[in-house]
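In the previous chapter we treated chains in isolation. Here, by contrast, the input contains two separate entities that must be folded as one system, with a combined length of 559 residues.
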Amino acid sequence: MTIYAALGAVEQGFVYGIMVIGVYLTFRILDFPDLTVDGSLPLGAAISAVAITSGINPYFSLFFALAGGFMAGMVTAFLNTKFKILHLLASILTMIALYSINIRIMSGPNVALLGQTTVFDSVTNLGIPAHYAGLLIFGTFALLVLATIIWFLGTELGQAILATGDNPQMIRSLGVNTNTIIILGVGLSNGLVALSGALVAQNQGAADVGMGIGTIVAGLASVIIGETVFGCKTMPRAFIAALLGSIVYRLAIALALGMEFGNFRFNPSDLNLITALLVIGALITPNLKKRLIQR
Amino acid sequence: MIRLDNIVKYFHRGSVNEVFALNDINLQIDEGDFITVIGSNGAGKSTLLNCIAGGFFPDSGRITIAGHDVTGWPEHKRAGLISRVFQNPLLGTCPSATLEQNMALAGLRGKRRGLARGVKNRDRQHFREELQKLGLGLENRLLDKVGLLSGGQRQALTMLMATMIKPEVLLLDEHIAALDPKTANMILNLTQGIVKGQKLTTLMITHNMKHAISFGNRLIMLHQGKILLDLHGREKENLTVKDLLEQFYTAQGEELALDSLLLN
C-alpha cells in the first residue's frame, strides 16, 4: 500500500467515521438497528449538492443536509414509537421512500459539482495541497462531531438518552418520555449520517442516488471492529473507538484491495465479501480468545 | 391525597382469556398513610399499583393525585408525583451508568432535562452523604457502574433514588420478594426508616403476612379485583397473622361455597 493509498483510507475513515458515530448512537446506545442510513447518506449528499448548485454557501449546505437527515430519522422513529412498527421494518420503509425522494431532490439520479465551490476550496485557497485538504477537513469535522456527541451525552438530556437504551422502564418512571427520546436520538444519528454524505459528495464532486448502498454494513463493520480493537468500557471511549474503527476498516479495505496473490487480485466488487469477512472476524475473535484462555 | 373512584380494568376484554383485574375499586389514601397491600396471586395488587403509576389506563373510573386528575396522564407525566420500586432489582437502575449518574437521573425526576451537565460537582457531596446512610460502603464507589453491584445493593440504591425528591406517593411492588432473607430485612428496615423519616404516603405490596401486619398504619386485602378488607389504626394494630389468614381463607372459602352451589 502506498502512502497516498493509506492517507486516502484515513481520510475516508474520518468522513465515514461521522456516519459510524451516528450508527453507534442508534445501534449500541439506543438499541435501535436503523437501516434508514442507507437512504439518509445520499439524502445529505443530494441536499448539499443541490443547495450548492443553487448558489448556497457550501458550509450552510451542510446544515441543510444535517436537518434533512434529522427529519428522515424522525420519520423512522415516529413510525416505530407511535405506530409500533418494528424498528427494522420502519427503517427499511423510510430508506425505500428516500430513494424516490432523493431522485426528486436532485431532479435525476445524480448532481455533479464540477466547477462549484465546496468546503475544500476554503482550505486549498490557503495554499494547502489538495491531497491534504480532504484529510484536514474530514479530520476536523470528525473530531468536532466526536467532541460534540461526547459532550452532549454527558448533559442531563444526553444521560436520559443513554438511560433510554439501557433501562426504558426506569427512565420512564423518572419522568422521561422515551418515545420523544428515541425520536430525538434516531434523528440525531441520521443527521450525522447525512452530514457525512454531504461531505463525501463535496469531496468526490457529485451526489449519486446509489452512493448509500451498503452504508449500514460499513457502519456496523466499523463499530464492531472499533469495539473489538479499542474497547468500549466508558461512553467517551466507545465513541472514540467507533471513529478509530472506521479508520481501521477503511485501511483494511485498502490493504485488501492492494494485495496480490500470484495472478489473483481483489476487485472493488469484492468489497462486500471483504466487509462480511471482516465483521465475522471481529465478531468471533472475542469468542476465540476466551476459548484459548480456557485451555 | 390520592383518590381512586370506581376503577375498572379488564385485560384481553372480549376474548376467552378475559381477566377482570380491577372490579370497581374505590380507595382514598390520606397524606402520610403507609398502606400494606396483600392478596393471592392474580388478586389485582400489581394491577392496582400499575394503574396508579400509569403503566396502563383504567377502562373506567378516575384517579386523582394531590388535586390533579391524572386519569389520562401517561406514565412519564405522572412521574413527578409518583416514585416506584419494582420487585426486580434490575429494573430500578441503569446497569451501564455509574452510581452518580444514576442518582443524578433520579435527582431530576419529573423535571425538565436540558443541556446542563448530567452530574454536577455540587451534587457529588450530597450523593456521598445519602449513600453513607445505607451503610454499605457505596459512598466510595460513585464512579463504579451499577451493573457491578449485587441485587441487594441495587435495590437499596433504588430506594434511595426513589425518595431523593419527595414523591406524593411511593409505590413498592413486592420490592423485597426477589432478595435473600438477610438483604430483604435490610431493605425493609431502610424502607421503614425512609418512609417514617420523610412521612411518605406509601403503598407496599407484600406476600408476607407478618410484614403486612407489623408495617404501616393501614392494611388492605385484595381479592379478585376487589378490596375485601381495609383495616385502619386500632383494628390493624390488634390484628394477628391467624386472624388475617382466617379472613383470607374465608374469602376464598365463600368463593368455593359459591362454586359448589353452582355445580350442584
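The domain at 2-94+150-248 of chain B is CATH 3.40.50.300 (Rossmann fold). Chain B has nine helices and ten strands. Compare these points with the single-chain example from earlier in the chapter.
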